[in-house]
Amino acid sequence: MSRPRLQPTDLRSHRWFGKDDLRSFGHRSRAKQAGFSADDIAGKPVIAILNTWSDANPCHAHFRNRAEEIKRGVWQAGGFPMEIPVLTLGETLMKPSTMLYRNLLAMEAEEALRSYPADGAILMAGCDKTVPALVMGATSANLPALLVPAGPMLRGNWRGQILGSGTDVWKYWAERRAGTLDECSWREMEDGIARSFGTCMTMGTASTMAAAVDALGLTLPGASSIPAADSSHSRMASASGRRIVEMVWEDLKPRDILTTEAFENAVTAAMALGGSTNAIIHLIAMAGRAGASLDLDRFDALSRRTPFLANIRPSGQFLMEDFYYAGGLRGLLDRLRDCLHTDCMTVNGQTLGRNLEEAVVCNDEVIATRERPLGPEGGVAVLRGNLAPNGAVIKHTAAERRLLQHAGPAVVFRNYNDLEARIDDPLLPVTADSVLVLQDAGPLGAPGMPEWGMLPIPKKLLAEGVRDMVRISDARMSGTSYGTCVLHVAPESFVGGPLAFVRDGDIIELNVAERRLTLRVADEELAHRRAQWVPRDVQYPRGFGRMYAQHVTQADRGCDFDFLEGTAPIPEPEIH
Ligand code: FES
Predict the structure, then answer these.
(1) Residue 558 φ/ψ region, left for φ over 0, alpha for ψ in the -120 to 50 degree band, beta for the rest
(2) For the chain, which has fewer Cβ within 10 Å, the N-terminal or C-terminal residue?
(3) Distance from the CA of 313 to the center of ligand 1, in angstroms?
(4) Neighbour count for residue 171 (Cβ, 10 Å)
(5) How do residues 255-285 score in pLDDT, each as one tens digit?
């Protein structure tokens, strides 16, 4: 379906550059100050390239080059590129968590797009929170936008063994703590586990979110699967630059694409991939910005009906590079056609179904067939019960099956410092049947809901050969993590959720098949504990942290700021 095309005088940027007034004189003269002639700008769509490159983000080390490749495409298509650096959110270095700052980047992106003369936007993102943040900001700004995903890094290598970032770090760190891995081997792994620029190459949060946004229709089809170091990635960047210019003329905006059905496609893709639990929080927040309907129960329903097909770590065996060679996301989605809304519009102006024509899968070991899926349902389950009245989640495909129905006595850690101080204490009263509980690790308690949810196995149990046990917290966990970890318990303990009232020795029952999480303590006793509970003050007396504490929502609502949710229109600057 062809859309009516805009005229040059319809462009937002015309208000900056096209008028015969004092303000426009200033804008044009300052563009000339930067070396551009009138012909470079006149009547052309201005494409803001929001670049999350910095020295603090090794996953985006190639973004300087990619920005130039995007600009090449923009020029070729008759646009005017304008690169704007935005908050980098380097996952590996920021403390306590990049999640504390996701909404800050979303706000920055929205305000940058609104305040500068942008007609359209390229979103350069990849490392975990940068993808949802830029999508949230661009959705609220609602200018034509297209995301260029950073792409996964190459496979890791150690003595001929293939290593996956994150996942194998957790695995071999447990061996190091158990005393079965020497320092020399550990150092060699450090050299070989991150071999190129790009995002984590397991099905962690970055790969999951890039795939989800691809399935949403906000990237060129299949772009999320291309390894960062593959020359196809450069060509995808230039093609994205060419396409965004056309999107401006077609006036194809995020909210034309981000429908409830499109979000259901994204959830379906994430579940078939065995994707990160973090996708739940981010997709709910993104849907909230688009006015689409998505909640935990819908997530769980979609997960139950979606077969698990992608054999990628941490739930499977392979890595993102293998996934790309096997056919990538387009191949996987083609195998899920009957679970998808194939009539959803995407950024290339075609429907999702049209984009899947000619998709192929050439390795059934990496992308399983529908006849022989890796599992009958998606990787994430939503739990409820008196311990999590507003929900909790578990990535059950990355857990030991025997623990998916389990009851055991709680061993409670009041916060992360308490955990660090006592987890390896030889006198800790813990057995393989215990349930480890971490409090004060949620959106407000930590604050920032860090990825502490894969609590370490106590050293004395590691020595006995234990490699998994039930762990419960209001934290998140890295998408590269694994184990029987119940996460995102809501409401969190800091605000008086029932998790705050668990005591050592209380019996906790987990039943994933029935989606239950139960604290076997009588209601009267819980009421008594609640009455004795003394809330803590928020940690920040001023600054961004103060604003965060006043406005962040709980995990089941996506941890957006309450004043950023929704689609209420914001006035355009200087419209008279
Ligand atoms: Fe950047 Fe994993 S640390 S994607």
Answers:
(1) left
(2) C
(3) 15
(4) 17
(5) 999 999 999 999 999 999 999 999 999 999 9
Distance CA 449, CA 128 (A): 14
Q: Can you read off the two tokens belonging to residue 391?
A: 């929900």
**How many other C-beta atoms are found inside a 10 Å radius of the C-beta of residue 30?**
10
- Measured in Å, residue 151 CA sits from the centre of ligand 1 at 11
Q: What's the number of CA atoms in the CB half-sphere (13 Å) around residue 161?
A: 12
Q: 3-state DSSP call for residue 550?
A: helix
Q: How far apart are CA 83 and CA 250, in angstroms?
A: 22
Please give the pLDDT value at position 171: 86
Residue 219 has φ and ψ, to the nearest 5°, of: -120, 165
CB atoms inside a 10 Å sphere around CB 512: 19
CA-nearest of 485, 530, 462, 553 to 180 is 462
- Please say whether the beta carbons of 52 and 86 come within 8 A: yes
Eight-class DSSP state of 222: T
Residue 38 CA, ligand 1 centroid: distance in Å? 41
The single-letter code of the amino acid at 95 is K
Q: What are 556's two structure tokens?
A: 């089941």
Confidence of residue 315 (pLDDT cuts 50, 70, 90): confident
> Which atom, in ligand 1's list, is nearest to the CA of 206?
4
| Residue 451 CB–ligand 1 contact under 6 Å | no
Ligand 1 binding pocket includes 206 (Cβ within 6 Å): yes
User: Are the beta carbons of 122 and 146 closer than 8 angstroms?
Assistant: yes
CA 57, 61, 64, 70 torsion-angle sign: negative
Which residues have CB under 8 Å from 208's CB, separation 6+? 270, 273, 275, 276, 278, 279, 479
H or E element at residue 383: strand 380-385
CB atoms within 10 A of CB 29: 9
Task: Determine the distance separating the centroid of ligand 1 and the alpha carbon of 262, expressed in angstroms.
Answer: 25
Handedness of CA 178, 184, 189, 191 (dihedral sign): positive
Minimal CA–CA distance to 354: which of 100, 62, 1, 28? 1
Q: Is the pLDDT of residue 576 over 70?
A: no
Measured in residues, the chain has a length of 576
419-430: pLDDT as tens digits: 999 999 999 999
